[in-house]
Structures are given as C-alpha cells and as structure tokens.
Design a protein that fits this description.
Strand content: under 5%
Number of strands: 0
Largest sheet: none
Distance between the termini: 91 Å
Number of domains: 1
Structural class: mainly alpha
Number of helices: 3
Length: 104
C-alpha cells in the first residue's frame, strides 16, 4: 500500500489565488477609485468635475494600454469611466437646479 507524503496543510496542494499570472494595470483601479469618489462629492461640484475628468482620462489611458499590452482588468477601467461620467452629470444637474431655483 502506497502512502502519499504528508503535507503541512491541504492548502499546500493548491495554487495561491494571488499568483494567478494575469497582467493588471493600476491605472484601471485608479480610474475606478476616482470615478467612485466623484459621485458622492457632486455637492462640491468643482471637486466632482475634476475627479470625474481625471477618472475618464486615466480610464481611457488604461483601456488603450490594455489593448496594446494585454492587461486583463479592462472592465475596471470601463467602470471608472462610467462612474466619472456619472459624477460629472450629477454635478451639472446640481448646477442646473441651482440656477433654475435662483432665477425664479
């Protein structure tokens, strides 16, 4: 009867989930973080618009890099672009409401 060598843990037989070998770009994550922060800060419209523009620019750069270099987290970059657009639209909506209320 053949016996398998003892290991320290059953987890030793599996690959680490961190070492997946996929190439990812930090620009995509930065775009998502900036886009998410731009949404709740729409009350401070200069901050929200600035963060939204940065999210769109960095997300676009990340998507271009991803196409060229084969990064795998392009969905994160796309989500950052969408959140940046949402932050800008909310800020513009708030400005439009403020102008409409102040003119009546």
């Amino acid at each position: 009867m053949r016996q398998e060598p003892a290991t320290a843990s059953p987890l030793d037989r599996h690959a680490s989930p961190v070492a997946d070998g996929e190439r990812k770009t930090g620009r995509a994550v930065a775009s998502l973080v900036l886009g998410i922060i731009s949404i709740p800060t729409f009350f401070f419209w200069p901050v929200s618009v600035t963060l939204g523009i940065l999210a769109i620019v960095i997300g676009t750069m990340a998507r271009n890099d991803g196409r060229r270099m084969g990064y795998t987290n392009m969905g994160t970059a796309k989500a950052g672009i969408i959140c940046g657009i949402a932050g800008i639209v909310l800020s513009i909506g708030l400005i439009a409401v403020a102008v409409a209320v102040s003119s009546s």
